[in-house]
Each structure stands twice: as C-alpha cells, then as structure tokens.
C-alpha cells in the first residue's frame, strides 16, 4: 500500500509543473525567477503600492498597483500578452490574484514569484 502512495505522489510531483503551465500560471521559486529575469527578454510587473515600490523593487520592474481601478487597462496597454510575464508583490498573495486575472484576460504565460519580493530578498525582511 505504501508503494502505491509513493508512486502516486511521485506522479503528482512530476506532473505539477506541466499542469500549471497548461493553466498559464507557473509558481516560480526565487532562484528560477532570478534566472528568468537574467534572460534579458522579460516583462516584469510589480503589483504592490507605489510606496512599496519606491521603498525597493526588482530592476526593470513596472509598477501597477493591483488595487488601482485602472489596473487591467494599464497592464494590457503596457505588456505584450503573447510574451511571458514575470509578476510579483510583497508576499505572493496579490501577485497570485493578479496572475489568475491576467491569465483569464489572455496572457499566455505568467511566472509568479513564490513568496514575493520578501522571498527574493529574505535578509531584508523587517
């Protein structure tokens, strides 16, 4: 019986990235996110508030506050839906909401930074 569980969980772990990719949103570790950023051809979206963005952000990021009434309009006019979009917030909650909404609006592939910028720079947490 334990062997069946082991096989089942191994299959689930193996298929999880493919299932997320089919959905259009991939939860990305800070290390993988950094590699994607270094590719040079990224679209990087910070969905935090302007004050949070001003306090520190990832280089090359465009700030559009998820709670702004014009959020979707600004994102659609600023980013190419056919290209991968890298997205983050402070802890991962807001970017997950935004990523799902953007997927529904036609963005093909979205990489969401797991744990947000706080996970990217763990030594800078307050």
Would you spell out the secondary-structure blueprint of this structure?
Layout: H1 2-23, E1 25-28, H2 30-38, E2 43-46, H3 50-55, E3 62-63, H4 71-78, E4 85-88, H5 93-104, E5 110-113, H6 116-120
Parallel strand pairs: 1-5, 2-3, 2-4, 4-5
Structural notes for this entry:
The chain is of the alpha/beta class. The protein is built from 6 helices and 5 strands; from the N terminus they run αβαβαβαβαβα. The protein has a 5-stranded parallel sheet.
Task: Output the keywords.
five-stranded parallel β-sheet; Oxidized Rhodanese, domain 1; alpha/beta; globular; 126 residues; 6 helices
- Approximately what portion of the residues adopt beta-strand conformation? 5-15%
Distance between the termini: 46 Å
- The secondary-structure element order is HEHEHEHEHEH
Integer-rounded radius of gyration: 16 Å
Brief overview, please?
The chain is an alpha/beta fold and about 130 residues long. The protein has 6 helices and 5 strands, in the order H-E-H-E-H-E-H-E-H-E-H.
